[in-house]
Amino acid sequence: xxxxxxxxxxxxxxxxxxxxxxxRASSRAGRKGVAVSGRARDxxxxxxxxxxxxxxxxxxxxxxxxxxxxxxxxDVAQEVFLAFGxxxxxxxxxxxxxxxxxxHTALNLIRSGRRRASREETVAATAEVVAPDVAETVLTRxxxxxxxxxxxxxxxxxxxxxxxxxxxxSYAEVATxxxxxxxxxxxxxxxxxxxxxxxxxxxxxxx
Amino acid sequence: MRHPTEGxxxxxxxxPAGVSEPDRAHVAGCPVCLAGLxxxxxxxxAVGTALQPAGEGTVDVPAAWxxxxxxxxxxxxxxxxAPVRAxxxxxxxxxxxxxxxxxxxxxxxxxAGTAAANDWLPVFRTEQLQPVSLDPADLVALPDxxxxxxxxxxxxDGPQQVPDAAAAAAQSGLDVPAVATLPRGVTGExxxxxxxxxxxxxxxxxxxxxxxxxxxxxxxxPPPAGLDGSQVRLVAGPGVAAIWRQSAGVPALVVGRAVAxxxxxxxxxxxxxxxxxxxxxxxLPDDVAAQLRTFAADGSTLPLPVPSDRVTTSxxxxxxVPATVLETRDQALAAVLWVEDGVVTVVAGxxxxxxxxxxxxxxx
Lengths: 207, 364
Hints:
The complex is a heterodimer of chains A (207) and B (364).
Chain A: H1 2-5, H2 16-20, H3 23-37, H4 48-67, H5 70-85, H6 94-112, H7 119-126, E1 129-130, E2 138-139, H8 141-153, H9 156-166, H10 171-178, H11 182-206
Helix pairs in contact in A: 4-5, 4-6, 5-6, 6-8, 6-9, 6-10, 8-11, 9-10, 9-11, 10-11
Chain B: H1 6-14, H2 21-28, H3 31-51, H4 61-71, H5 86-93, H6 98-108, H7 121-129, H8 136-141, E1 149-155, E2 160-162, H9 165-172, E3 191-195, E4 198-204, H10 206-215, E5 231-236, E6 239-244, E7 253-259, E8 262-267, H11 271-280, H12 286-297, E9 311-318, E10 321-328, E11 334-340, E12 343-349, H13 353-361
Antiparallel strand pairs in B: 1-4, 2-3, 3-6, 4-5, 5-8, 6-7, 7-12, 9-10, 10-11, 11-12
Helix pairs in contact in B: 1-3, 11-12
């Protein structure tokens, strides 16, 4: 919760979006993001409530895949929507922009080490999930945090593409959001998965 | 032909329709690509599991809005949105999991994803065309049947768009289901798609089966007389679907119908003999084997293997016919499927189970 309530809100969501969402949409998002932050106190876009209602759960879902915790994901989603409320991202590009923003903000959170111990993770630790995995690996909490750390260490585009795909965006949607060709989405996601899987196996065999 | 890239194999797992027909056909018959596909699937499943968030999946949207409004500059926020009206709306807002997309798509793909009825072959096809409609664990564990003989796939053209219901009916030879009352939130005219008959011929090879078994470290039981060289023919489709699209993601509503897969021996021993022998080979996990036997036992039901980590199933009835309702665990999507007179019908969409059932009951 405190992510939003103290410190400098919204406009400081480190618009990595600006850099990472590439192409037309993003250059616009980035430019406006900067321009708009100056008048952040008085302008909130008119369609915020509508977009919020439509996309909030999706944004939480994206962040939750990165963070593993829905509580933290909701904090991230709040941050993202605050930024969005002050942006001039075209309405049609909002879903992609929001998803990319959620992924970046969540990845930044992992890298910054600002994480707090999450209640769900503590609970989850007591009831390990058996992975539907051919190796019949039991994914421990350590495995999961290792994967998340590895995720944050991947090239940004790979990490974001992976998270968006696993959050249910289609290849076309991922391609549009990241300004990639749909054909390269599969390759990018595949590389990311291979790297993370290697991370899992490496530790499984060294345990 | 050259092997498709890893990226293409990866997409085949999620969006077979996004992969070109020549690539799909190549993969279906290429042991190297099938192995690559299996690896990609295993990696994807493991990573998907690792990224699964802990805890419940529910989000209190009104409360979250309240919180956001509090952080916005005074006067900048609109009044809180009306309580979220419902599952349908929330469902559309939520992330689209590929699962029901696959289920919906299954109808278009002439039952490839329905894994209906009486043998393992549709399951094998499913592995190639509709992987998400199987439990990832089962999928990966299912032996690559090309190790046991030759598979030749024919047909499966499409899906191809046609102008209207009449054209769809004429081309597919199926009655195109008409929806009397659209669920709330679904509007406009559907798009009609037709897919041709899909066939696969499997020729059993005793030599290859023995080699495959030897690799698993256990000897294969002796094959029944006459099995070597026996062929099984599986035919599914044609199929037709009416699709109400929305701006992005999974369609709002899909109503599809297809001739359910059937398998028969085209030469050699009876199909059941080959099936039972294959089921007895080392390398096939017990649970998969048991599941496959169940398929064979009752051709009138629709045993639909689903990824249980993402989808819940429940029994229902549609016009007194037993049906299966699927719902993604995040409640984003639901589908109902049933088989009647050898025809499988599916109603799916970003709706709730009650809504898809209502549409199903209402079909003409």
